[in-house]
Amino acid sequence: MLKKFREISGKTGFIVREYPMVLLMAFLAAISLMCFAHGNFNSNGNYFVFIRFSLVCCLGLSLMFALKMLSQRIGKAFLLEILGTIFLIFFYLLLPEKEKDFTEKYAFILVPTFILSHLLVSFAAFFGKNRELNFWQYNKNLFINVVLTAIFTGVLTGGVELAILAVDKLFDFNFNQKYYAETFYLLSVFGSCMIFLLFSENGLHDLEKDGSYPLILKFFTQYILIPLLIIYAVILYFYSAKILINWELPRGWVSYLILAYSVVGILALLLVHPLKENSTKSWVKMFSRIFYYTLIPLIVLLFTAIFTRILEYGYTEPRYFVLLIALWLTAVVLYFVFAKKPTIKFVPMSLFAFGLFSLIFPYLNTFSVAKRSQKTELHNILIQNNLLENGKISFNKKVSDTVADEVSNKFEFLAKRNEKEFLLNLLPAKNKKLIAKNLNEANFWGIRSDFRNQFKNVQYDISKKELSPVQKNVTLIAKKFDADISGYKYLFKAYNYKYNSFEFDNNTVELKMPVSMFKSELNLIFNGQKINLVPDLKKLFENYPNNGEIKVDDLFITKVIGNYEFKMMFDSVILSKTADTKDQFLINSESVLILIK
What we know:
The chain is of the alpha+beta class. 59% of the residues lie in helices and 12% in strands.
């Protein structure tokens, strides 16, 4: 036992010395998430900094590992780590300081950047030639280590969490619920990193070592993955034939199916790469030869579907990325069809190059293209519907509800991309004040709502099936949102789209709010007892039968449960009711105040 302990300690010490920056990133990410959990997942105020920091540290995990692999090939580890640290500092400063400014724009920065960092891991140490088999063995071993890490981490985390729960329940310790979240973050981030590095102990030397082809991987690829791909190929070809026969434009979602087929197919080819020259696996060899040829007509269908959407609605970041992946697929197909000695390294390297182009290339990056396109689309809609007078939007002119909605959506889209000056230049002086206030406060939902309500002569087309006639669409807005705390002992702030749980006097209270118009709920959970507040929410609207926005003196619900009185204060609530649906609510609040006495 002592010998085993010394062996494990020795390996741990080696990992700490060999991968200090990778472990530091994992440790800082875990600590940041634990601090975030300790603050009751309160992402507003000072706690949002932990989200920013953890995101950057998680990015640093894969980046520092990639640079470590590169340094094991070329040396200069210290210089590479300095460059990696400078990049992470720059990336941290790129993210917004406040949660309300963290729009979907940053998701289109974060997700591609994380993908690029993992692609860098796959090829950073293999820029040279004559390493084709080593490259495959390296990525195969990485893949296996990731799967093993996930299994080990899941068992470890689940086991420790159950142990804490057992001690809590058996010995009546009444642990704070935060301990479970903090333990999960520590083990799932830092613990998984330690486990992965233990599997990859000697790094590049062990990972690129030649080894036998795993039987499980062979079985999975040959008898599950490739047959499924053939089935999907048949479906897509039949759908293509249907389009040609009916001479109709393809549906938008077919793009995602083609992309999925293409990407999974390329992954399957990479997995069976060493087998394709084995004569005993003739059908694998045949699939390897014909796969890229099967993609050619599907890529034509893919471009047709993409440009159908782009020509109709313009570019957005998702459409840009779909087009970019289609272009990358075209490049991959052409390369493997015409290259005399193709290398599988081309797949991750070319995808990395396309992804980097989409983020940093001047004028043609995804954000520049999307903003220019949506500006043009907005201007064209305004001109086509005669809504411009002297370069300003005329809100008194007759306009259909679909046009008003489309203009409002584009207005919100551009507001989230910091196009404040462009948008304000389109507004008459009398309409600027309210919109400018929302722009300054980054109240993007309020921007769309307030802008939409500026149109005074909206014509609703109730003949369209998808636009059910709205019988009721009322927005109640509190004139003041100040909490009178006299007589109350506790004050909590709850946030929509968040987990809101609070503790007081050895009690636990949780507020669950509606997160969309499709799920109307407002539940107060007090010590496990659930109280439905939707009937109380309906009562707020009893005296307001008309559509539109209505300002009220105050907006709150009071509920007595046991020895406590709860008062929930809202800044605005929306009721939407159509002929064929039940009442639907949306709490459009930066926060909800909960007063308890």
